[in-house]
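input
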Amino acid sequence: MLSLGTWIAVSAATAKSYEERYVESFATRTGMPVPVKAISPDAVKVDNSVEIEVKFVVDTAGIPREISVADIGNASLEASLSKAVSQWRFRPMLKDGKAVTSKVILPVRIVRYGDDALVAMR
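output
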């Protein structure tokens, strides 16, 4: 018999984060760089919900380079997104069995929820 405390500890240990579920949703995809590690941006205050494009290049080692975030007039949010994406890691796209550099456009939806912002990557 499990006590409630043990059940909570077991549940917490097996629960997957949003980032883990996001990465898993790409696991079987081909023809594109596949995220193997995703980091959510730090929380920032937003006035309205918004969708932002984050563009970058995934190099042959799976590291995002040349990151640019669309200017939406919120420098804190733009910097937070750039910092988060710089920590992502990818399984690079393959061409003829070899890793190749590829461009990525990542739409990110920031949803205002009370005083906080929720991030949804697509």
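quick obs: DSSP finds three helices and eight strands in the chain.
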